[in-house]
Amino acid sequence: MALAAPLPAVDMYLDPQQVARALGGKAKGKQVTAPGPGHSRLDRSLAIICDPHAPDGFIVHSHACDDDIAAKDYVRERLGIPAWKPRGKGNGAAGSTNGRKTSDAKLRTPIRAKPASRI
C-alpha cells in the first residue's frame, strides 16, 4: 500500500471577536487591540490582525515596542495554538522556515561584510 501524499497547508481562520475575548481586548473588523504580555488589562498596545493566509492565522504588532515574537507566542498561548517549533535536520525538510516567510528567515541570517576590492 502506497503512502498518502502530505496534505497541503490549510489557511487558518480566527474569529476576531473570539480572539478579543481570549485576550481581554476589543475587535474592530479583522483587527483586535488587547493588552500585551505583562501589561494592565486596560492596555491596548498589542494589535492582532486576523489573516487566514498568515502563519497561525494572525499577525501581531506591539505599539509598546515589546518583542513581536514574544507577543506572538503570548497570543498563541492564550488562543490554545501549539507553540512554534523550528524544523531542521531530522524534523522535516532542511532549511524549512515552518510557515514563516523566507524574508523573515533571511533577516535572522548574519550579514557578512564584503572585503574591500584592491585597485
Please describe what this structure looks like:
- By secondary structure, the chain is of the alpha+beta class.
- The protein has a domain at about 15-80.
- Helix content is about 20%, strand content about 15%.
- A 4-stranded antiparallel β-sheet has the order 1-2-3-4.
- β1 and β2 form a beta hairpin.
- Mean pLDDT is about 75; it is low at about 5-10, about 90-100 and about 100-110.
How would you briefly describe this protein structure?
It is built from three helices and four strands, in the order αββββαα. It is of the alpha+beta class.
Beta-strand percentage? 5-15%
- Write down the secondary-structure element order: HEEEEHH
What spatial order of strands do you see in the largest sheet? 1-2-3-4
Shape descriptor = globular
Write down the Rg: 18 Å
The structure class reads alpha+beta
The number of distinct helices, counting runs of at least 4 residues, comes to: 3
The number of distinct β-strands equals: 4
| Measured distance between first and last alpha carbons | 65 Å
Main β sheet profile: 4 strands, antiparallel
Instruction: Report the uncertain regions.
Output: 4-9, 91-98, 102-111
Mean pLDDT figure: 76
Secondary structure: helix percent: 10-25%
Q: Topology of this protein?
A:
Blueprint: H1 16-23, E1 26-28, E2 31-34, E3 46-50, E4 58-62, H2 68-79, H3 102-107
Which descriptors would you attach to this protein?
14% strand, 119 residues, four-stranded antiparallel sheet, 3 helices, globular, alpha+beta, 4 strands
